[in-house]
Amino acid sequence: MSELNTIRIAAAVIMDEKGRLLLVRKRGTLFFMQPGGKIEPGEDAQSALVRELREELNIEITPEELTPLGEFTDIAANEPGHQLHACMFRTANWIQDVQPAAEIEEILWLSPSDTTSHQLAPLTANKIVPRVWPSALQTTG
Asked: Which of 38, 51, 79, 114 lies 20 to 30 Å (CA to CA) from residue 86?
């Protein structure tokens, strides 16, 4: 078996006041995932996430508003032969008006009852959804 190349990303768990999870789908792809993106050389994870949220969703947030949730690894959804190593953060801020920009084609506010209705990226389905809604996959799957 060949070794997978690792892509380092920073991503956000963003919830709305109804307890729904913000997911995005990049242009030309099928999978919904957490907003965020690749960490550039010399950039820390929080700075990368602040930059990505601004570029992709016009969300203005500061590094101080981010709470680390941990680091997670899974198969990359859109890059065959790669795995993701994600530095995941959450924000307690309610973000209401999110507009797709840059390479984001679609946004989705996912509720626990909809987890099997959409094509979720492996990291989202396997690591994030079970952490955000521990019983969601058991009750809907």
From this structure: 114
Beta pairing partners, 75: 83
pTM of the shown model? 0.90
Query: Mean pLDDT, 10 residues at a time, over the chain (141 residues)?
Result: 80 92 96 96 96 93 94 94 96 78 93 93 96 69 42
**50 vs 15: CA distance, rounded Å:** 16
Beta bridge partners of 70: 88
Element (H, E) at 30: none
- How far is Cα 14 from Cα 36, in angstroms, rounded to an integer? 11
Strand order in the sheet with 82-91: 36-38, 5-13, 82-91, 66-75
- The set of residues, in sequence order, having a beta carbon less than 8 Å from that of 104 and lying 6+ positions away, is 24, 25, 26, 27, 35, 56, 57
